[in-house]
């Protein structure tokens, strides 16, 4: 990896046991092109959700998971289902309810009466894109069924580990926590989500376009496949190679540590938060057709990557301070590298 980013000249590296050989510039433009194609396809059925689509794409490009929060009827389920269709990946859905058990999600071992053998019957967890719908309507013991899956991409049942595959991604939806019949998500689970994406209401013009779309009976519009799993592998490889300078590492470290010293937080961000923020910034740089990270990439994703990882001090909550406002204050207090 080069110390100095360059997008205009071919870097030269020494080949082991031989003379120096040219190496092509990182083709990050491919990442941006696939993102633009995805925006076009999803834009046929999702009106006014370009920011949500961007963060969902980054979630996949960075091998992460995403938490989608918003009121009912804003297209969160449609987003994930359509995303799976455009990628050609398997889609699974679990409707979280108060009586849902961990085995209903992961699966269980059963006795095959025909052979008298015990075998594992996989649950809906074993898919590529998993929609955990209304995840905060299930108690903590059921939510915890996702902990190993999100971190290790595997599930252990009766001492046997079952792999989920490298494309396994959780898109969890939740209602605002103040609504009736919901449970708060455990901090350990929240920390495994790359982003918390706030899905808001469309503008007046966007909502009018949405009504026109359905009035024209185009609700059955099909979307084209813009990427396959192998193509997603290539995107992940390109994102992983984006260059991060020492000054960006220092800046990210300073931002994350500042949340632990800020009086407005009772719980600051973990080291994992810094790792995920940096990975997401590499993806954002690729979307901007750059093979190196700038401070703006970190700033762009600081709130969606950390808003669910911190806890506000009770006094700050009483004053009406929101997590995003508190994180904005943190950013203003940390010097930006030049």
Descriptive report:
- The protein is an alpha/beta fold.
- The chain folds into two domains: 25-224, Rossmann fold (3-Layer(aba) Sandwich), CATH 3.40.50; 242-338, Helicase, Ruva Protein, domain 3 (Orthogonal Bundle).
- Helix content is 42%, strand content 16%.
- It is built from 14 helices and 13 strands.
- The protein has helices at 29-42, 50-61, 76-87, 102-106, 140-143, 147-152, 187-190, 204-215, 229-240, 246-261, 271-287, 295-306, 314-318, 323-332, and strands spanning 12-14, 20-22, 66-69, 91-95, 107-112, 117-122, 129-133, 154-157, 160-163, 169-174, 195-198, 265-267, 311-312.
- A five-stranded parallel sheet has the order 4-7-10-3-11. Strands 1-2 form a two-stranded antiparallel sheet.
- Strand 1 and strand 2 (20-22) form a beta hairpin.
- Helix 11 (271-287) crosses helix 12 (295-306).
- The longest helix is centred in the last third of the chain and has 17 residues, at 271-287.
- The radius of gyration is 22 Å and the shape is globular.
- Mean pLDDT is 87; it is low at 1-23.
Quick synopsis:
This protein is 42% helix and 16% strand. By secondary structure, the protein is an alpha/beta fold. It is globular and about 70 Å long.
Judged by helices, strands and strand pairing, the structural class is alpha/beta
**CATH topology heading of the largest domain:** Rossmann fold
How many discrete domains?
Answer: 2
Mean pLDDT: 87
**What is the second-level CATH architecture of the largest domain?**
3-Layer(aba) Sandwich
């Amino acid at each position: 990896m080069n110390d100095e980013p360059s997008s205009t000249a071919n870097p030269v590296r020494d080949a082991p046991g031989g003379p120096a050989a040219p190496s092509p510039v990182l083709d990050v433009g491919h990442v941006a092109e696939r993102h633009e194609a995805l925006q076009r396809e999803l834009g046929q059925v999702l009106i006014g959700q370009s920011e949500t689509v961007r963060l969902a794409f980054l979630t996949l490009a960075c091998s992460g998971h995403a938490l989608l929060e918003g009121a009912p009827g804003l297209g969160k389920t449609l987003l994930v289902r359509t995303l799976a269709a455009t990628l050609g990946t398997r889609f699974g859905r679990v409707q979280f309810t108060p009586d849902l058990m961990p085995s209903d999600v992961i699966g269980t071992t059963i006795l095959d009466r025909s052979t008298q053998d015990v075998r594992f019957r996989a649950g809906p967890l074993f898919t590529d894109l998993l929609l955990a719908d209304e995840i905060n309507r299930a108690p903590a013991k059921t939510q915890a069924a996702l902990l190993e899956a999100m971190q290790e991409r595997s599930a252990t049942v009766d001492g046997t580990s079952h792999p989920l595959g490298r494309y396994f991604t959780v898109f969890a939806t939740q209602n605002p926590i103040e609504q009736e019949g919901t449970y708060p998500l455990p901090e350990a689970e929240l920390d495994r989500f790359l982003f918390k994406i706030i899905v808001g209401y469309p503008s007046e013009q966007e909502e009018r376009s949405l009504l026109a779309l359905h009035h024209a009976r185009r609700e059955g519009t099909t979307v084209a496949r813009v990427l396959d799993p192998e193509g997603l592998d290539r995107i992940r490889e390109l994102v992983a190679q984006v260059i991060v300078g020492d000054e960006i590492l220092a800046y990210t470290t300073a931002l994350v540590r500042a949340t632990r010293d800020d009086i407005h937080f009772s719980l600051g961000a973990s080291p994992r938060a810094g790792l995920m923020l940096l990975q997401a910034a590499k993806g954002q740089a690729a979307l901007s057709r750059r093979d190196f990270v700038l401070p703006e990439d970190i700033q762009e994703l600081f709130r969606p990557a950390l808003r669910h990882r911190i806890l506000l001090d009770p006094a700050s909550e009483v004053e009406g301070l929101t997590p995003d406002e508190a994180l904005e204050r943190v950013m203003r207090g940390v010097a930006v590298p030049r």
